[in-house]
Amino acid sequence: MTESFPRQSAATRNFQLGAPRSFHINEAGDQVLFLRSETGRDAVNSLWLYDVAARLERKVADPRLLLADDGDIPAAERARRERMRETTAGITSYSTDFTGNLVGFALSGQLFTGEVKSGEFKICEVTGPVIDPKVSPSGEYIAWSNGKDLYLCNFDGTRELNLTAETSEDTSWGLADFIAAEEFGRMHGFWWSPDSTSLIVEHFNDSQVQSWWISDPATPSKQPQEVHYPATGTANATVGLVKITVSGEKKPIIWDNDAFEYLISVVWQKDCDALITVADRSQQNFVTFAVRETRLENVHEVTDHEFVEVIPGQPRWHDSQIVSVVDNRTTDTRELQIAGKAISPVGLQIMSILDIAENYVDVVATSDAINRDVLRISFDGSITELAQGGVATATATTAGLQVLIESRLDTNTRSYHLRRGVKTEHYFDSLAESPSFTTEVQVIKTGPHEVNTAVLFPRDHVRGSKKLPVMMRPYGGPHGPQVLNGALTYAADQWFADQGFVVIIADNRGTGGRGPAWDHSIYQNFVAAVIEDQVAAVTAVAAHFPDDVDITRVGVTGWSFGGYLSALAVLERPDVFHAAVAGAPVTEWLWYDTAYTERYLGHPEKFPEIYTDHSLISKANQLERPLMLVHGLADDNVVAAHSLAFSGALLANKKPHTVLPLSGVTHMTPQEIISENLMLLTVEFFQTNLKG
């Protein structure tokens, strides 16, 4: 019997298992470390080595041999993995010295260290639980957080030292605070100096952050979990930095925390002063300081009257000058700058900085929002294309070597190859499975704003033979473009289409990749731009395929912001959208976190009417169409109260609807049975409610 796509997709974690990841090239350029599981259905990662000279891949650390049980993951590490959307087990991250020979990692809260050359690893008996361990560049030490304090010991596990000795129950050292991890993409809370003599360490205090309680109603004997959740308009954690020597001497790094309460990034490059970037609560003002011995020096500022975007990999030093990515509102370009001068061309949108070398900067960039190209931009402005015409990213270049990861529209696989310049020297084995079918997608421009819109029909559909119901599958939120030139992006969409639907994915205004004006078009107004562009998309697709699209039967479904969009669509435009499945929707923006919500909607005390306009709960009396709400009850990002309170408001207004609560499920749904059945139930819901 042929396995169904929902089952295969669920079992392979959306075809991610078995693929190589987390590459690290050592300084000598003679080896590449990476993580990979045994098969496309194995979630347990091992540490692997590619020997450049021998041209061989070999396993160097197997968690199944080192530790039989990977189930006892510390609570702080579980939270960290949730922020990272990490769905695998085993070795999920690792750290090395500059040679790449000495490696440290955590398994089940225990510290493991060892040598790549010998393949011998051991448990270090240290104070745990061990979270996010990092080997010093010299290989002499390893440091870690236990959720409360930052510890350090010799690499062999001897001479342990508590560097922070915190007495307050509300203060944690060496971890990224919730907002930094969830909204700014910063997953670490301490950084080694390049000479291995000291560390910069984050500490944060949650005492002023309100407590919420996440319970498991299906297990009434289980105690609810307390989480400090900084909801919109309420207090954030108080964040600070301290420079600590390996002997334990402390020197606070002081800036005006009242004016700049967000710690965005810390970068400590070789032979350079450390850079820290902070932002004010409105995120309209970002300042980068160089950490001198006894003072901070302001070396870079970015301001915007609406908000400043966080761009990965920057700012950084190059020859005592700052390399950064800055929005040029005049040319509508997110440009690469050195010392305030643009070196990238108008219209090329820089998505992230990968690496800075003596004569060039490697970036991920796009000129059409559909492709993600890896480009090498020289300081004279010349550009070398390292990967173009698909969806790509890459590691930093070390000793002339770089790992590129690429996916394209003409293949269901991703390639992972080691490059020297533009020449491929090795393709890393990927054990990831692929869908049993190929996707057939067309991308068109829709509406007055020329929204990138993907359209998929059933593969057996004969054009003009009959009109099909529509299933719109948007995300629609900031940083969330879905219309990309990679076939795996559309695997689930093709399966949904094959169930008898025209699937439409439209990247409305605000989704990113098309310049500052596009990103800022949703400022203080998610509702208008998002819904207008989705309506324009389905209307344009129906006009483009008049004999194939039944515009009287349109369903819409999405998760997270896409869940909000889906519910909003049937509330605001029931004349266009006739049924919705809303997964983990934000129904009340006052209950979502500070940084994300206030960045786009402003502070609720200053703009209360904006929050009322964006609340689904306030619109509950408008529901006229079938709606199914799906929500994980263990979700600590968009808490289940969003769907439950919305359901209560719908009930109070005598509006029939369906609620599907997922016990023990967070904002992710990696559980195989749940993931599979959600796809099947979505199809069943639309087949029932979009009958011709």
TrEMBL record:
Domain Peptidase S9 prolyl oligopeptidase catalytic: 494-691
GO biological process, one term: proteolysis
SUPFAM superfamilies linked: alpha/beta-Hydrolases (SSF53474), DPP6 N-terminal domain-like (SSF82171)
Domain Dipeptidylpeptidase IV N-terminal: 110-309
GO molecular function annotation: dipeptidyl-peptidase activity; serine-type peptidase activity
Pfam families named in the record: DPPIV_N (PF00930), Peptidase_S9 (PF00326)
Official protein name in the record: Unannotated protein
